[in-house]
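#struct-help
A.M.: can someone run this one for me? Single chain, 369 residues.
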Amino acid sequence: MLKNYIGMLMLNEKEDNIKSLTKSRPIASIPIGGRYRIIDFVLSNMVNSGIHNIGIFTNTKSRSLVDHVGSGKPWDLDRKLNGLFLFNLTSERSQLRDIDVLSGNMEYIYRTKQEYVIISSSYMICNMNYNEAAKYHEESGSDITLIYKKTNNGKKHYVDCNTLYINEDNRVLSIGKNIGAEEKLNISMEMFIMKKTTLIDIVNSCIQTGSYNSIKTAIYNEVSKFNVNAYEFKGYLQCINSIQNYYKASMDMLNAKTTKELYFNNGLIYTKSKDEAPTKYFNGSEVNNCLISNGCILKGKIEKSVISRRVTVEEGAVLKNCIIFQNCEIKKGCKLTNVIIDKNTVISENTVLEGDGEFPVVIEKKFRA
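D.P.: on it. Structure tokens below:
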């Protein structure tokens, strides 16, 4: 168990290709799997690995994130010693650099008693126990260990993710970007293991020289300076950096094998509980291969879809390959195929919406008084 480690979640993730779901929230708090949020995976992975001191560094649109994580109770992080810490800074800039956020909260890093740090983004969803990676890092004697995933489908998946070029000794030689030109690639999972003193040195160097805007960039551009090793993760991975990847990950969860691996294999994935009534299925409703959350009222036909809490599907409505966020109402006679509908949306009677299997239609979030 990694009691000598602190976890740090850097939520300055690139949102260019998923903005229709991040106008009022960070990627970390996008709903997924009906009742979860994207941040639940990395938080649960850290807690299941024995890390009980976790700092979340965020800079914009964090209301929904703060509401979701709260005191950290669902992850057993509401503690007198250690626990969950949320750092949120504002600035005249449209978005702060993570170096700015870290430099403004160095006291947290200095005061922690743990010796090692695991830094991660939130949008790489997987079920991973960090113990083996941490053991590999300590035994290798490297300055930094970077966790990666091998893929044989780089032209279609993990586009815009960073790629690693490593030698036979697992030493990282250079870092590039997946532009969709090659199939076989080593995808960086944006998870870094290092000593706390190494992190402090990197932050201080970035502040003094003004060379880099982020921890990730500082490491990637200085691999020749540091001894950077790579550790391979062999489980299911999806990077939620675009609407297409979010849609694919959600549809993958309808596969029983993927669901078992993603939610149970290396420990449970925890989330905020709503303690709501079970879903009510009316006579005449048909539900096939779906993830259905609590509190729904279902009267229509639903196939291969993910339905969040408190969704109403009226009689005569037909949903196929859809993702419906909470508090939505699908009125009578609607025909929806390959559609993502954000929170609090009402779809009027007899509406027909049809997207593509790779490029779904997205209905953005509506606000209610």
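A.M.: thanks! Residues 280-363 form a domain with the UDP N-Acetylglucosamine Acyltransferase; domain 1 fold (CATH 2.160.10.10).
D.P.: also worth noting: The longest strand covers residues 185-195.
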